[in-house]
Amino acid sequence: MTIAGSIGILAVIAIILALGIPLGGYLYRVFSGRKSIFDKVCAPVEGVLFRAVGVDPSVQMDWKSYLRALMLVNFTMMLFVYVILRIQGFLPLNPDHIKGMSWDLAFNTAASFITNTNWQNYAGEQSLSYLSQMSAITYLQFTSAATGFVAAIAFLRSLVAHRSGVIGNFWVDLIKIHDLCSCPQQLVG
What average pLDDT does the segment 52-80 reach? Predict the structure, then answer.
């Protein structure tokens, strides 16, 4: 290994540590209910979203309720993507007149992207319309990672729950992780 290569590796490790420690602290504050630096911007946005979807952020869930909500959301998202992929030939933003996927390929693709494995058994732009790429594939690349993240948060909470049985509120966590991704960008942009 060259000296430049070693310096590059050390630089990457230093950047990860420099960003990872403050980001980890920020995530801990957000998901443990403590104050964070973006609360003035994020809290009003979250409040609007909570009211819009009818979520009471003070209600806590046990693991069964949390898992049920997570599975319901993932099943709904997978079904939505499956339908989009099957009927993409009839939908707009399809200038190449790409036909809908077969049932097994659409199921495989939806299952792959909902589990965030992103395995592609098709030829991207030759098998997917613009709408399918935007509303199905890109959508799941973002939201499946968010549901995986909140599942990890719930698991960590369950480790420290001290037999209380509650691990948070799935809907609150899902809104927070989506809002978490957008609020810092709103301040910078």
Answer: 94
